[in-house]
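WARN retry 2 of 3 for item q-0093 after timeout on previous attempt; input resubmitted unchanged.
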Amino acid sequence: MKQILLITDGCSNVGSNPVLAAANALEEGITVNVVGVVDYGTIGDLGGQEIEAIAKAGGGISRIVGTPILAKTMQMMTRKTVVQTIELAVNKELKQILGKSAGSIAELPLHQRAEVVQVLDHLTETTPLQVALLIDASASMKPKLAAVEEGIRDLMLSLQAREGRSQISVFHFPGRQGSEDAVLDIKWTSDMNALRSVFTKLDMRGATPTGPAILKVIDYYRYGTLNENDLYDRDYGAKEGMHGDYAAGS
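OK item q-0093 returned
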């Protein structure tokens, strides 16, 4: 199961439309969730509308939160999306088994519903999960960086508690000298130690090319797998190490 978790505080202003990019992700089987990290009162209606539209186009959910509850929100959204995706798949299977007239899980007889819910719970905990964290590193996000770091660490801990294999990768945007590239900071990993140095190397500046960044993560998903066979290693490995400033797909 594949997710992009976009963490941003405002409107995109460079490059392709992020809503269309999120729709492309959904077509690739990647759900896009969006957390708007704001100081209340500082985000305009346009920013909130864009955050909601990106998540809707990407088949995910959106939340606008202050930094104190960021970590809890990231965990909640990740788990909720897993549950929703599995429930949709199970409902589809039920219709195939019981016929198109069959209702949702909630409409099943009580004893059947209990059995299906038990299966749902099992799948939620055991289904392999990849979460690509996409961090807005524009200048306005700098005061929120500590909360983002804490949120990612807490999310990693919650994913490690699952029975199924869970991995995260971390990207930030904009890229070098304000380019539209999303930079791959951490490849797919389940290792908490991989997070140690990523935030010390972020240069928080520039515009907000959210659309191009989402497209870069989609490209990475096309070549990254749960067994960590990664075709981007041609430019990424021994020379710069795990946390090199590498733009995925370049």
